[in-house]
Here is the input.
Amino acid sequence: MYRLSDLNSCHCTDCQIISGWPCRTGVAAKAENISIKGVVAEYTKVAESGRKRVLGFCDTCGTGLYGADAEKNNFAIRLGFLNQRDDLVPIKHIYRNSAASWLKGIEQH
Ligand SMILES: [Zn+2]
Here is the structure.
């Protein structure tokens, strides 16, 4: 089991709505350290602040693959589709103030 400092779960309402679950977990990765094969559908989410976030999905099944900054330099690879998802433990929980009330034992970072 691994605990990576760049592995976090986000409990913001956007992540809850987009993921269909109370949080969304991603592994931070620089563009130069990943390779993407196949067709990826993308949707650009624009926050109230104007900040853009590119969301990548499998073009065939809709599985969430990543979120990235508008320039696609910094990615958050979605934990759910990684084979190592049971071995990678999120060390940070962000936007804990909007976390589901029934989700207990999560420390704020
Ligand atoms: Zn979020």
About this structure: Residues 10, 12, 14-15, 95 surround zinc ion (CB under 6 Å).
